[in-house]
Amino acid sequence: MTIDEYAVWAATIAKVDEQPSNERLSYLGLGLAGEAGEVAEHIKKLLRDDWLDKAGLVEELGDVIYYWACLCAATGHQPSELLKASAAKIKRRISEAASR
Which part of the chain is the NTP pyrophosphohydrolase MazG-like domain (predicted)? Predict the structure, then answer.
């Protein structure tokens, strides 16, 4: 399954249509933030306890991807295109930093 296929599937699960309501967008955004917080909790526990629950972290990363993919679909963007744009932006920043 590609990331774009996953986003289509996730959007059907989350009942995202072509014109999502502000409430639906808010729900998805808050879901993403909440799951990112769960990822942060795993990292915090790594720092505190010097132990990482890798399986738990990976599960939460999957939840982050779910909400991210739903938001991509809700805004009419293919995840693969956002990944390409993100890579280009990061490469540009690296190049700019190297030239300073």
Answer: 29-93
Handedness of CA 75, 81, 82, 83 (dihedral sign): positive
Per-residue pLDDT tens over the stretch 11-51: 999 999 889 999 999 999 999 999 999 999 999 999 999 99
> Which tokens go with 12?
């059907």
Host H or E run for residue 13 = helix 3-13
Distance from C-alpha of 63 to C-alpha of 71, rounded to nearest angstrom: 13
Asked if residue 61 lies in contact with residue 97, where contact means CB atoms within 8 angstroms, the answer is: no
Q: Provide the whole-model pTM.
A: 0.91
Beta carbons within 8 Å of 19's beta carbon, 6+ residues apart: none
